[in-house]
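G., the chain you wanted modeled:
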Amino acid sequence: MKRALAPTRLDFVILVVVVAAFVSLGGASPAFGTSSPPQSSRASFHGLGQMPGVVIQAGSCGTQAFGISGDGNVIVGAGCAPSPSGGFADQAFLWTAAGGYQGLGDLGGGISDAYAASLDGSVVVGESPPPGASFGSFRWTATQGMTSVPVGW
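Predicted structure as tokens:
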């Protein structure tokens, strides 16, 4: 004869946790909070416009944002600007609401792209090949400027 297993306290706790997780993820239960952030921290869009000096070339140039700091206050990327050697080349930038665009320079090869920023935006990393190289990485801070980061295999 088969005997039905009686639910244990552990079964009940697991069921409550699973149900609470699903309800909380759906944002439907005030007992577990909501999935919506507080009104003051909701995401918003702020257009940056073009980086000063950028020349818009059909299909390839303009201003591109590649990364954002963890706190959302610093945006990094590159703008296509006139190159001293002729033509146009990407130039790394960081942007803040207070200061606007700030060019970060390059490692001597005339090209740079900023790809990521630290949590507070004080450190920026990206790519900038030095003269004669096809690749080079950099680390930028306001106090040290752009410094080369060794790339090894």
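Residues 63-149 form one domain.

Shout if anything looks off.
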